[in-house]
Amino acid sequence: MHIITALAIVAFVHVTLFVTDYILKSCLCLPYMEVVNHLGLVIKPFQLRVSTHCFNRRLAKWSYNNPYFIKLWMSLGVLVVLALIVPSIFLLAYNVVHWLATSPSPSDKPGSSADDTSNKPPLLQPIVPGVNLSSDELPTYIITLLISSVIHEAGHALAAVKEGVNVDGVGLIVLFILPGAFVLLPSDAMKSLRPFPKLKILCAGVWNNIALAGVALLLAHLLPEFSVLLYSRGRGAVVTNIFENSPARGPRGLFIEDIIQDVNGCAVKDSLSWHECLLTNLMETQRGFCVPDSVVSQMDETIEHAAVGASGAVTCCRKPRAESVGSDHLCFELLTDVSDDDAHLVPMHPFSCLPARSALSRSPVVCKGTTECPTDHYCLAPSVGAEERLLRIARTPMSNAWRVPAVTEASHGQRKLSDHHATADHDGNETLITSELRRQLQEVKGKIAQKIDPYVNTRSLNNEESQDSPSLAKGNDYAKYDYLVETDDGHTDDVEALPLFNDVLYLGSPALLFQTVKVSDYLPRNKFISLGWIEELQEVCLCFVKFSGALALMNMVPCIGFDGQFIADTLVEWSCIGRCDRNDVRIMKAVITAVGTALIALNILVGISSLSITDAPPHTS
C-alpha cells in the first residue's frame, strides 16, 4: 500500500470516529457514554486519548519494593539533567546559527562548497511519512516512539509515587499516527512539594530517556562483536533486499543472499567497500574490459557510420529491433595508448558493436588501456552517456541464480534483452530510501556538482523477455538454450567464461543501484539464521537513540508545555527564595520560557526547511 493512501485511510478513520462520537454524545446515548467513561476515552479531531487507573497499585508496589534504588536513580537523574540543560541550549542555538551561516544563497552554484555543507542534515529534523520516511520504516518508528514515550512517563509516575504524590491515572494518546503516553498528577500536590523532590519527579522522564538512548547506543555498537558465532564478515556484501523497481532485478540480475565481491575490478569486502566502489565508478570515467580479438572479429555488428547521441554516447549499432542485433548490443570504444598521429597503426576499428554479456564473459580483466591487456586482447570501453556506467558485478550466488542458462556465441544474435527504464518503473510507485542511504546519495551527488540524475536512461542487461526466460515461467523450452555446463559433475569446455556468465551487468547510474539494493556485512553461518537480523536490530537500537534522545533534548530546554518549562520554573523559584519578589520571578519565568520556546521553534523550522521533494525519488511520467 502506498504511504499516501495509508495516511488518507488514517485521516478518514479519525474523522469517522470524531463525527460518530459527536453524534452519539449529542443524542445522549447512555450505553456509549458509559463505555467511553469506563475506558477514559477522549476523541478530538485527529486525536485519541485513553486513560486508566489500573496501574496505580502496581506503580506503588514497584516503588516500595525498591526504595533505595529508585531514590538513588532519581537523585542521579536530577544531577545529570541539570548538568545537561545549558549544553542542550547551546547545542540548539549552534544548530540554528550554523544553518544560517551555511545555507546557500541564490547566487551559489550547485556543487559549491556552501552547497556541499548545506547537504548535512540538521540536529532536529521532522519525520514526515512520504518524504523522509518510507512505509517499511513506519511501523518500527511508531513502536520505538511509543516505547520511548512510555518509559519517559513511567519515570514521572514512579518518582511521583516515591515522593508521596498520588497518580490520578496513566494513559496513551495518538496524534494522527504518532503515539505517546501521559501521566496525570494532581497539580496541588506538586505545588506543595519542596524544590528538590519536585525536580526528582520532573527530571525522571528526561533521565529515563537519556539512559534508554545510552543503552541502545551501546547495544548497537556491541552487536557486531556478539554476532561472530552466528555470522561471518569480510566475505563480501550480502544482498538483503532489492527494491521492487530496481534495475538490478532480473533472471540474470541480483538475488537476495547473493554475495557481491567485485564491481568493475574494485574489490568488495563489506557494505562500506560496496558503497566506495560505486562512488569510485561514479566519479571516474567508464572503465574498459580486455576483450579477445577473436570475440570482436566474430561478433562485431558495427554500422558504417557511427554517430554521437544526445547523451554524448557514440551509437555504432543498428536499432535494437533491427535484424541480427539484439537490445543487449552496446557500442564499445577502443582505448589505446598511442597518440592520434599513430592511431592508424591500430589494427581494428575504433568502435565495435558487441553483445555486452557475450563479450564481457571472455573479458576477466578490467583496464584503462590496451597495454594493460594480455596478448591478442584489446581494451574496449562501452560508450555511455555522462550519467551512465556499465558495471560488471561479480557475485557468488547463494540463491537459484545459477539455474539461469548461459547463452553461447552461436545464439548471441537471437538473444533479445528488454530495456528496463527506471523512470517508467518509478511512475506511481515511488521508492523511499532510508535516511542513511539518502545522506550518502546526496554526498555522491554533491561531489559531482549535481550533474547526475540517477533516474535517467537506466536499463538492465539482466532481463530477458518473458517468453524466452525459463526463470519467469514454468514449462519453457529449455532445449533452445546452449548450456556451458555439459556434464553432471560441472565440467565445461570454457572454464574461464563460466563464472563470468554469473556476473550481473548493469547499465545506468551507480547512484540508482546504490539506492535500490540493500546489502549487509553479515553472512549467516547457518541457513536457519535470519539474513539481515543484525542490521535490523541495529536499526531498532538507532531508532531508540533518535527518538529517546530527541525526547530528552526537547524536554530539557524550557519550552512551553514541556518538562523543561516546569524544571526551569522550579529552578527559578528555588534560586529566588528570599531574594526576589513574585513579580520578578514571574517575569524571569516568562522570559526563560519564551527564549526556550523560540529556540525549539527555530530548530523545527530549520529541520522543515532541510526537507524537500528531492529527498525522495523523483516522480516522473
Quick structural summary:
This protein has helices at residues 3-26, 30-39, 56-65, 67-102, 113-118, 138-162, 187-191, 195-226, 271-283, 293-299, 356-360, 422-426, 435-447, 497-500, 510-516, 533-556, 563-575, 582-610, and strands at 42-44, 47-52, 169-175, 178-184, 231-232, 237-242, 259-263, 266-267, 288-292, 307-308, 314-315, 329-334, 351-355, 366-367, 377-382, 389-396, 459-460, 504-508, 517-520, 523-524. By secondary structure, the chain is α+β, with helices and mostly antiparallel strands. Helix 3 (56-65) crosses helix 6 and helix 17 runs antiparallel to helix 18.
How would you explain this protein's 3D organization?
- This protein has 621 residues and is α+β, with helices and mostly antiparallel strands.
- It has four domains: 1-45, no CATH class; 51-224 and 555-615, no CATH class; 242-285 and 388-520, no CATH class; 287-383, no CATH class.
- Helix content is 43%, strand content 14%.
- It is built from 18 helices and 20 strands.
- It has helices at 3-26, 30-39, 56-65, 67-102, 113-118, 138-162, 187-191, 195-226, 271-283, 293-299, 356-360, 422-426, 435-447, 497-500, 510-516, 533-556, 563-575, 582-610; strands at 42-44, 47-52, 169-175, 178-184, 231-232, 237-242, 259-263, 266-267, 288-292, 307-308, 314-315, 329-334, 351-355, 366-367, 377-382, 389-396, 459-460, 504-508, 517-520, 523-524.
- The strands form five sheets. Strands 6, 7, 8, 16, 17, 18 and 19 form a seven-stranded antiparallel sheet that branches. Strands 13-12-15-9-14 form a five-stranded antiparallel sheet.
- A hairpin with a 2-residue loop joins strand 1 (42-44) and strand 2.
- Helix 8 (195-226) packs antiparallel against helix 16 (533-556) and helix 9 packs antiparallel against helix 15.
- The longest helix is centred in the first third of the chain and has 36 residues, at 67-102.
- The protein is elongated.
- 33% of the residues are buried.
- Mean pLDDT is 74; it is low at 110-118, 340-345, 399-441, 443-459, 464-499 and 613-621.
